[in-house]
Design goal:
- About 15% of the residues lie in helices and about 35% in strands.
- The strands form three sheets. Strands 1-4-8-6 form a four-stranded antiparallel β-sheet. A three-stranded antiparallel β-sheet has the order 7-5-9. A two-stranded antiparallel sheet has the order 2-3.
- The protein starts with a helix and ends with a strand.
- It has one domain.
- It is an alpha+beta fold.
């Protein structure tokens, strides 16, 4: 019986030592990572200045901090029956695909002239991808006045509008 007790004690001690030995042999592994967020960025790249027999249109791009993010359109000599299309091109300069949407609003000037003019915008369709090269999309701003306008009080009056293009992450 004593012998059996010694054997049991020896087995318990041996297992304890194996467990302790196992604890001495260990290794830690680490995973280090860096995450950089992508960017949504777009800018105007070009346009063709429209020609009209009576109205003069000037399109400029004042340089902002992040490229050409503003396009100024000045129309002088608007008249009943005018239908002026100002094309523009938007370039995706970010690292993420984007879709472009638009809204427009009157921001000041003669209210009667505002009611006689129509400003519509067609934003670039689809998704502007990024695949090694910047992708562009075309859009238009159309400024028109119906030929039925006969109110001479709007002659030589001015009004202003703003079209906002929003480049939004596509995914």
């Amino acid at each position: 019986m004593k012998k059996l007790g010694l054997i049991v004690l020896a087995v318990v001690l041996a297992l304890g030592l194996v467990g302790a030995a196992y604890a001495y042999w260990s290794q830690s592994l680490s995973i280090n990572g860096t995450v950089t967020a992508g960017t949504v960025a777009a800018q105007f790249v070009s346009t063709t200045t429209p020609t009209d027999p009576y109205a003069t249109t000037v399109v400029t791009y004042p340089v902002q901090g992040n490229g050409y993010t503003v396009m100024d359109v000045a129309v002088t000599g608007a008249y009943p029956g005018m239908n002026l299309t100002v094309p523009f091109e938007v370039e995706n300069t970010g690292t993420l695909p984007v879709t472009v949407s638009s809204t427009q609003a009157w921001t000041g000037g003669n209210a009667t002239l505002q009611s006689d003019l129509t400003v519509t915008t067609t934003a670039p369709a689809g998704t502007l991808q990024v695949s090694g090269a910047f992708q562009t999309g075309n859009g238009n701003v159309v400024i028109s006045m119906p030929s039925s306008v006969s109110d001479t009080s709007i002659e030589n009056q001015t009004c202003t509008f703003t079209v906002t293009l929003s480049a939004n992450q596509a995914h």
